[in-house]
Amino acid sequence: MASLLLLFFLLMIHRVSGADWGVSYSHSDICALKGSTVTIYCTYTYPTGHQIQEMFWTTGPKMHSEKIPDLSKDPEYSQRLQYLGDKQHNCTFRLSHVSQKDSHMYYFRFITDIDKWTGYPGVNLTVTDLQVESPETVKEGDSVRLTCKSSCALTDRATFIWYRNSQPLTEIGDRNNQLLLQSVRREDAGRYSCALQGHKLTSALSAYLSVMYPPKHTFVAVSPCCELVEGNSVTLSCNCDSYPPALNFSWFKGGTFVGSGRIYSISKISSNHSGEYKCKSVTEHGEAYSDAVTLNIMCVGCPVILYIFIGVFIGAAVVIMVVLVWVKKRKDAQESQMNLSRPNHNICQTSDVKIMDTVYENEMAKQDEEEKRHTGVSAKMNQSKTYHNIYQTSDEKLPESVYEDVTPMT
């Protein structure tokens, strides 16, 4: 009976003492964005006459656990946790740079010189990301709206910053959590994310925006790209820029369809394959033709014949040039020789004329004397004959009797 009374007395003391112990939290559930700083406000009470020896924050303690961990001594929290309370009644603490792994139940525990207490049920912290909602694909020229959302309740004063491929799109934040892209281009494709101004570490889970557009910059690549010799093979490939990638290709030679597929190959080319080729790329959003490329096929042995022809042509040209130069030099030499001999010839010719004139006068004088002895007709015939013989044989030697009668001119 005495033992029962003692047990009842102890229970009454504990109930009274429990009424003086307690921990109060400002919120039982807190939602925070990844990378932000969280402040948990709380107060605690204990019986009068107790002296606080130790107080700390902990996560998920068990009722009958022998040792409850202190977060301030945990390497994962020690650099981010700051106790803002005191040893009286304030137990507020701050946790910075929170992440999803910080999502736990948090409890405040304190120890006095007489007893100890843990504040149940604690505070439930949920850490979440901002999320970007966007259509997966959009066609070039359309408009698209992206939304920055969070499962946490954000204040009306929240200001958003948008990024594309980690580069800011706006220098000044926008109170609107939506980003409107009007008449999108293919350059607008990329990974989009958002953040709260002042909390750039609270970047959102990004969303990739794909912009679909028809084929552009279609062109043909030729391999081998240089000399195409008859009997060898050649490969033509059709290339273009489009999204989604083009899968339908057609080949044309001079406007005539010759094949399909991105690759067009000719195993043994001949002169019949010479001509202009082009390809067409097609997607669900459009089609495009490439510029034409020309295939020039060289026949086997043609290069040798061509080189021989070129050699013969060059050799003939050299011979002709040498002959022309020789003829010109010879002609120039003859003209020079004639120019040098022409003055002397004139002098000699003039002297001969003067001599012949003198001889003629002397001869005529003699004939006049003879005419006195002959008739007039005979004299004229002799005169005419003598005159003709003198001029016709001006270069022949005259009788000495003639030269004896010549008087030198002064």
UniProtKB/TrEMBL annotation:
Keyword Membrane: yes
The keyword Repressor appears for this protein: no
Matches recorded under Pfam families: Ig_2, Ig_3, Ig_CD22
PROSITE patterns: IG_LIKE
Keyword terms of this UniProt record: Membrane, Signal, Transmembrane, Transmembrane helix
Signal sequence region: 1-18
Transmembrane segments: 304-327
SUPFAM superfamilies in UniProt: Immunoglobulin
Subunit structure: Predominantly monomer of isoform CD22-beta. Also found as heterodimer of isoform CD22-beta and a shorter isoform. Interacts with PTPN6/SHP-1, LYN, SYK, PIK3R1/PIK3R2 and PLCG1 upon phosphorylation. Interacts with GRB2, INPP5D and SHC1 upon phosphorylation. May form a complex with INPP5D/SHIP, GRB2 and SHC1.
Purpose of the protein: Most highly expressed siglec (sialic acid-binding immunoglobulin-like lectin) on B-cells that plays a role in various aspects of B-cell biology including differentiation, antigen presentation, and trafficking to bone marrow. Binds to alpha 2,6-linked sialic acid residues of surface molecules such as CD22 itself, CD45 and IgM in a cis configuration. Can also bind to ligands on other cells as an adhesion molecule in a trans configuration.
Name this polypeptide is given: B-cell receptor CD22
Source organism of the structure: Carassius auratus (Goldfish)
